[in-house]
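Possible regression after last week's pipeline update?

I re-ran a chain I had predicted before the update to compare outputs. Posting the input and the new output here so someone can diff against the archived version. Not blocking, just want to make sure nothing changed silently.
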Amino acid sequence: MRTKSELDHLHSLGNKQTDYLSDYSPSVLEAFENQHADHDYLVSLDCPEFTSLCPKTGQPDFARIVINYIPDKLMVESKSLKLYLFSFRNHGDFHEDCVNIILRDLVQLMQPRYIEVIGLFVARGGISIHPFVNYADNAHQSLLHSRMMAQMNSTIQ
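New output (post-update):
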């Protein structure tokens, strides 16, 4: 069981005065210690209500964001992730930019062994866009390449 002092730095979780930011803000992301860093395991986060804005038209874009990662020493706290993703609500960027920004911010926060971000954006103008981006430390480079190839093969069918 975690001690109170191990959780003191987490400000979003349990906060009854939650501030929902309407502008992109990676500063809301919080991490906690992975107590099982002695082995690899997968954490999968499914965020079905992601929204951002088209940078040209300002029209809303809707997506399901899936984040899969193998933690190292730190893990993302889920409420802070929810607030972070919510902060994209008024952020104008292309779909591909959004998933790359999410990946970059999570890598900076946690330094995971492996992470991938998949954006399943709802069709607009008759086209669905599903960007996939991943990152791996030196020990997981084969996973990085195999997951990229698997993603490419699944979209070609």
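Follow-up from reviewer: compared with the archived run. The chain has four helices and six strands. Marking as no regression found.
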